[in-house]
Amino acid sequence: MSPKGRPEGEHRSAKHEGSHVGVGGPPETSDEALRASVVATALAMNAHGINRGKSGNVSARSRSERFDGFLVTPTGLAYEKTTPADIVPVTLEGQPSGSRLPSSEWRFHRDIYRSRADVNAVVHTHAPFATTLACHSRGIPAFHYMVAVAGGRDIRCAPYATFGTQALSDHVLAALDGRRACLLAHHGMIAVGGSLTQALALAVEVETLAEIYWRALAIGEPPVLTDAEMDIVLEKFATYGQPRRVEE
Ligand SMILES: [Zn+2]
Predict the structure, then answer these.
(1) Has 105 been annotated as catalytic?
(2) Scanning 180, 189, 230, 239, which has the fewest C-beta atoms within 10 Å of its C-beta?
C-alpha cells in the first residue's frame, strides 16, 4: 500500500533541513507547515480539555514525496515548549531522525499509517471521560446516533497492553478496523482522520459522546439504537460527508 522501494536514508540528507526548498517547493514547504500544525493540534488538544499535561501525542503523515513517513510530537517535552523544529520525522519502517526522540507511542502511529491509506493524522489523548470508560474496558455503544461519526455502529475499546508495545499497536489496529476512533483500555483514546483538523474534531466528538454516555450510565444502562437505525445514519454520513462539526 505504501510506496516502497526508495533508497533507505535518502530522506535523512536534506529533506527537513530546508536545502531542497525552493525548486518544486510544495513537498518540503508543506512539511514545514505540517510541523507547525502538529504543534498547534497538540496545544489545541489541551485547550479543548481533552488532554492534560503532556500525556497525549499527535502525528501527521508527511506530504513530502521524498519522505515516506510521518511527523510526530517528541517524548517528554511540554507542548507549550515544543517548536516545529522539535517535531520528529519517523519513517514507515520506524526510523526516527532529528534532534528529539519520538513519542513513546510512535509505534501505533506508524502502524496506522502503514495499514490505513485513508489516514493522514492521528490524535491520541488521555481524555478524562473516554479514559473513564476505558478503565472499565467499555467501548461506546450506539446509545446516541453520533456514535456513527467514528465510522461504525459503535466505538470499540482495544484490550490493554503496555504503552509503546507492538501488542498495543496490534490491539489498536483491530479496534480501528472500519473505524476512525477507538478507546484504549486503562489508557485513553485515539482518533484518526484525513487531516489534523478532522482527527482533532473527532477526538473532541468522541470525548463528548463518552461524557454523555457516562452521564446516561448514572441513570442506568441506556437502550441502544438498532443496527438498522445506525446503518441509516452511517449511510447519511457517507452520502453527505462528515457532519459539519467534524469537517470544520
Ligand atoms: Zn497514551
Answers:
(1) yes
(2) 239
Ligand 1 centroid–CA 248 distance in Å is 26
Model's pTM, two decimal places?
0.85
Report the separation in Å between the CA atom of 238 and the middle of ligand 1, taken as the mean of its atom positions: 30
Give the span between the Cα atoms of 95 and 102, in whole angstroms.
Answer: 10
Place of cell 484525513: 194
Which of the residues 28, 105, 205, 207 is marked catalytic? 105
Give per-residue burial for 115-141: e unless 16+ CB within 10 Å, then b.
ebeebbbbbbbbbbbbbbbbeeebbbb
At residue 115's C-alpha, the angle toward residues 90 and 73, to 5°, is 30
Structure confidence by residue, pLDDT tens digits, 34-76: 999 999 999 999 999 998 888 899 999 999 888 999 999 999 9
Which residues are within 5 Å of ligand 1 (an ion), measured at CB?
188
Residue at grid coordinates 460527508: 241
Give exposure, 143-175, as e/b (b: 16+ Cβ within 10 Å).
bbebbbbbbbbbbbbbbbbeeeeeebbbbbbeb
Q: Which CATH architecture does the domain made up of 10-247 adopt?
A: 3-Layer(aba) Sandwich (3.40)
| Distance of alpha carbon 238 from alpha carbon 166, whole angstroms | 32
Residues 117-165: pLDDT tens digits?
Answer: 999 999 999 999 999 999 999 999 999 999 999 999 999 999 999 999 9
